[in-house]
């Protein structure tokens, strides 16, 4: 009996391969979230000083390795911003994940610790960036959209397997905490929280969804479904993410529905894309088929114009004398 969990783990590990398109899409979504933030937000807004604090970025001690600090005053913050945009575009494009996973983790750390008002998405992305490193080191593809063509080594498989499960556990903790904590808030318990959230003057629903959102939250039944439905979805996602592949895929679909509705109503594009990207990596299939090896052709095929010229060429016949050839 004690050997059963070990044998199940051995089977899961033996067939595991992180080099899936799910991994690629997850990296792309996380990188795109920060690319949009940097490209569309002025540097002055990201680094605006807070009350009673020195100007951002803060570059003391460990913060000095941030992309906002390396190079000191010799590099302007505007140049840094666009260099980071270019690097994030390379990551999002999927080129050489084994190399770019390091750059991505560094950029996620830099943004998370250096801008004035990071949100929960930045904190989650910093953790995800570290956990993506073992998965990226196992990925020898040129582009993370391709099928792998070589078997994965046992060390790379083991570290990537541990990293994937660490990410799943992180997301489970996050969604359970988010869902359960709402039970301590009266508005969530009585089903009216979404009424106030959607009408908030700063973070409330925006056009073109403001009208439908206000209408739905103005009726008791639909308001209760909106409020309690969000809690149920969060808890179901947490439960399904540690299940078999079909349940993980269902968790990913629910995650997309949840965060797409957040985007449609109260915005939070960056946060939502990060969460969907993390869910894509966590819900990925355990294995992916290798691409078929490329077999070179036995002989070079003639093009149509070459075939025509070959068939019209004069034929040579022998006259019987050794070494002599006469054309007809």
Automatic annotation (TrEMBL):
Keywords: Membrane, Transmembrane, Transmembrane helix
Location of the region described as Disordered in the Swiss-Prot/TrEMBL record: 292-328
Stretches assigned to the HTTM-like domain: 15-287
Polar residues compositional bias, start-end: 305-328
Residue runs in coiled coils: none
Keyword Membrane carried by entry: yes
Subcellular localization, as worded in the UniProt entry: Endomembrane system
Keyword field contains rRNA-binding: no
NCBIfam families in alphabetical order: export_SdpB
Protein name: Sporulation-delaying protein SdpB family protein
């Amino acid at each position: 009996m004690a050997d059963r969990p070990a044998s199940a783990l051995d089977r899961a590990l033996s067939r595991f391969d992180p080099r899936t398109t799910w991994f690629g899409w997850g990296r792309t979504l996380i990188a795109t979230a920060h690319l949009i933030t940097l490209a569309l937000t002025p540097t002055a807004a990201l680094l605006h000083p807070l009350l009673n604090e020195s100007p951002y970025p803060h570059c003391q001690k460990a913060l000095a390795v941030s992309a906002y600090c390396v190079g000191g005053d010799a590099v302007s913050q505007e140049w840094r911003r666009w260099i980071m945009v270019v690097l994030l575009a390379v990551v999002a494009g999927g080129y050489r994940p084994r190399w770019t996973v390091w750059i991505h983790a560094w950029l996620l750390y830099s943004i998370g610790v250096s801008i004035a008002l990071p949100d929960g998405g930045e904190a989650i992305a910093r953790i995800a960036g570290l956990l993506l490193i073992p998965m990226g080191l196992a990925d020898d593809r040129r582009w993370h959209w391709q099928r792998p063509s070589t078997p994965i080594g046992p060390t790379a498989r083991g570290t990537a397997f541990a990293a994937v499960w660490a990410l799943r556990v992180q997301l489970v903790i996050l969604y359970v905490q988010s869902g359960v904590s709402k039970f301590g808030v009266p508005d969530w318990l009585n089903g009216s929280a979404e009424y106030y959230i959607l009408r908030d003057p700063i973070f409330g629903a925006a056009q073109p969804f403001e009208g439908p959102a206000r209408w739905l939250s103005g009726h008791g039944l639909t308001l209760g479904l909106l409020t309690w439905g969000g809690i149920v979805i969060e808890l179901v996602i947490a439960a399904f993410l540690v299940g078999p592949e079909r349940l993980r895929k269902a968790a990913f679909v629910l995650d997309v529905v949840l965060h797409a509705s957040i985007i449609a109503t109260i915005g939070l594009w960056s946060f939502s894309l990060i969460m969907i990207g993390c869910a894509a990596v966590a819900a990925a299939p355990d294995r992916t088929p290798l691409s078929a090896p490329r077999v070179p052709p036995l002989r070079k095929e003639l093009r149509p114009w070459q075939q025509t010229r070959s068939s019209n060429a004069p034929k040579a016949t022998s006259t019987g004398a050794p070494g002599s050839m006469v054309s007809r």
